[in-house]
Design a protein that fits this description.
The complex is a heterodimer of chains A (283) and B (274). Chain A is mainly α and 283 residues long. The relative contact order of chain A is 0.11. Chain A has twelve helices and no strands. Chain A has two domains: 37 residues; 218 residues, MetI-like (MetI-like fold, Orthogonal Bundle), CATH 1.10.3720.10. Chain B folds into two domains: 173 residues, Rossmann fold (3-Layer(aba) Sandwich); 65 residues, no CATH class. In chain B, the strands form two sheets. Chain B has a six-stranded mixed sheet with strand order 5-6-7-3-8-9, sandwiched between helices. In chain B, a hairpin with a 4-residue loop joins strand 8 and strand 9. Chain B is globular. Classes of the chains: A mainly alpha (283), B alpha/beta (274). At the A-B interface, helix 1, helix 8 and helix 9 of A face strand 5 and helix 2 of B.
Chain lengths: 283, 274
């Protein structure tokens, strides 16, 4: 049906690029950044080799790759722990953020009473309360989870509150006019119309959850078998195993990229049919 | 599967000449202290096409919103002599509202937007489908059921909004400057559509506008309002021997109607100076 709509305009539009043209564009868009990264890695290796920089100061990409391969047995469980903490924290933050946002917008009084508390929680640097959380939490893992949750939770909450309050007033009037119940208005109007705000919260929260999981582990100083990548990073530094430190770093940024890609895809998937942020400009 | 069937429209002549909504001495004061309406009385009968015309700030939109039950009155009463009213004192399902903006949900298709009033009544999508498609075809949008609002022109969006208002087959259609944001050609086309729907369905329309030409073209009764505070300045029927078609716009009847409305409007505006 969308074809029918745009069909009338296409007579005046410039001819669309053919399959090959579009394909070449996609290939270039993928190849150019990859090429740049490869060049930088080669340059890195070249500088190391030419200047003879020792591995404990700055390892070359080959040494890092070697460490990734050799230490995979240590790094993989750590990566898994960090991924788990990040994802669990994000999931809890989504449930909590959306739930509390819905609670807050129920009445002006509730918002007045509770919103300042959430702001105080947010502006307090999480590293500062990490030692406290460590005391009260039953295990280090739970402490890390709480820290990561607290950080990821606020952007989701504040975006969601903003979204729930930005509903078109005339649409609210319309729902009133048709005698919609509170529940119907929430389900059919307020939640869908705050979806773009939720997605912004999700993308920010996803990135912050990973950062918080790492920072909290630095602060908590967890150790042993159940520890995440942040601990492996510190441990490598103490042992002057700099290639492994770099390997842990590479894994962390890869995890960040994957989280970014997933949250961006979710956002695109739910918004691309109707929201301006996901549309291509037509001129 | 049971199909949702909207109640049949009363035949023309049947419900006509019976008061549909009666405003008695209605005043409305906003919390800011502004007196938007002062002692306004208005009776609209079934089958009428009434235009509320006046300068900005004369309370015509406020009056329309009060009739729709959007906001309370400060004084006075609103009665619905020929409707069953619900606990809020509103005639359930008998009124529809068309805003100045199309006010569509961008995440819903055209079909989903028109389905909304029926969905809120708990009617299933499959049961409502026939009624929705029929309503869409009365505004010429049957081929656009699956399109999203952003894919439509301004005029088409307005048609969706009208279809949504008509899908419940209301007795009274309230329109708040619905075509003010559209270009002249689209506006004339939509005016003709509204007139056709009014004639075909026997629906009662209260139409807020600030255009002399629009009100003279559409209505069979005009209520001119005065500002600060908002009140009725003049209330008169428009008699015309001609049916409103393409020729009407160039006819003597139309010219005279415009003249009369224009005179009344100037009076209303003139009276408010000093």
């Amino acid at each position: 049906m969308a074809d029918t709509v745009s069909g009338g305009q296409s007579a005046f539009a410039p001819p669309k690029p053919g399959f090959f043209g579009r394909n070449r564009d996609t290939i270039l868009r993928t190849l150019i950044p990859i090429g740049v990264v490869i060049c930088l890695i080669l340059l890195w290796q070249l500088i190391i080799t030419v200047n003879g920089i020792p591995q404990y100061i700055l390892p070359g990409p080959l040494a890092v790759a070697g460490s990734l391969y050799n230490d995979w047995g240590t790094l993989w469980p750590a990566l898994w722990v960090t991924t788990q903490i990040t994802m669990q924290a994000l999931a809890l933050a989504l449930i909590g953020g959306v739930g509390i946002a819905i609670f807050l917008v129920q009445s002006k009084w509730i918002e007045t009473a509770f919103y300042p508390i959430t702001v105080i929680l947010q502006v307090t640097p999480i590293v500062a309360i990490a030692p406290l959380i460590l005391i009260y939490a039953p295990t280090t893992q739970v402490a890390l989870l709480i820290c990561a949750f607290l950080v990821a939770f606020f952007p989701i909450l504040s975006n969601m509150v903003q979204g729930l309050k930005s509903v078109d007033h005339n649409l609210l009037n319309l729902y009133d006019l048709y005698g919609a119940s509170r529940w119907q208005t929430l389900l059919y109007l307020k939640l869908p119309s705050s979806l773009p705000y939720f997605m912004t919260g999700l993308r920010i929260g996803g990135g912050l959850a990973l950062i918080a999981a790492v920072v909290a582990e630095f602060a908590a100083g967890s150790a042993g078998a159940g520890s995440g990548l942040a601990f492996r990073l510190l441990e490598s530094q103490y042992r002057l195993n700099i290639p492994r430190l770099f390997a842990a770093l590479v894994l962390l940024s890869l995890l960040g990229v994957v989280i970014f890609a997933i949250t961006s895809f979710i956002s695109w998937f739910f918004l691309h049919r109707w929201h301006e942020s996901s549309l291509k400009r037509e001129n | 599967m049971t199909t949702y069937q909207a109640p049949l429209m009363p035949a023309p002549g049947d419900s006509r000449r019976r008061p549909l909504v009666v405003m008695r001495n209605v005043s409305k004061q906003f919390s800011s202290g502004t007196l938007a309406l002062s002692d306004m009385s208005l009776t609209v009968e079934g089958g009428e096409f009434v235009s509320l015309l006046g300068p900005s700030g004369c309370g015509k939109s406020t009056a329309l919103r009060i009739i729709a039950g959007l906001g309370d009155v400060s004084a006075g009463t609103i009665d619905w002599p020929s409707s069953r009213i619900n606990s809020k004192g509103l005639p359930e399902g008998d009124i529809s509202f068309v805003f100045q903006e199309p006010t569509l949900m961008p995440w819903q298709t055209v079909f989903g937007n028109v389905y909304l009033p029926l969905k809120l009544r708990g009617i299933s999508k499959s049961a409502a489908r026939d009624e929705i498609m029929k309503t869409l075809s009365t505004v010429g949008l049957q081929d656009f059921a699956d399109a999203y609002p952003r894919e439509l022109s301004g005029g088409m969006k307005m048609r969706v909004s009208i279809a949504r208002a008509l899908v419940t087959r209301p007795k009274l259609l309230l329109m708040d400057e619905p075509f003010a944001a559209l270009d002249e050609i689209t506006r004339q086309k939509l005016n003709d559509d509204v007139l056709r729907l009014w004639r075909e369905t026997g629906i009662t329309v209260i139409f807020v506008t600030h255009s002399v030409f629009e009100s003279a073209y559409l209505s069979n009764r005009i209520v001119v309002m005065k500002a600060r505070p908002g009140r009725v300045h003049a209330d008169f029927p428009l008699k015309t021997s001609m049916s409103r078609d393409a020729h009407y716009r160039t006819s003597e009847d139309y010219r005279r109607a415009c003249e009369k409305v224009s005179t009344m409007l100037l009076e209303a505006i003139g009276g408010e100076e000093h």
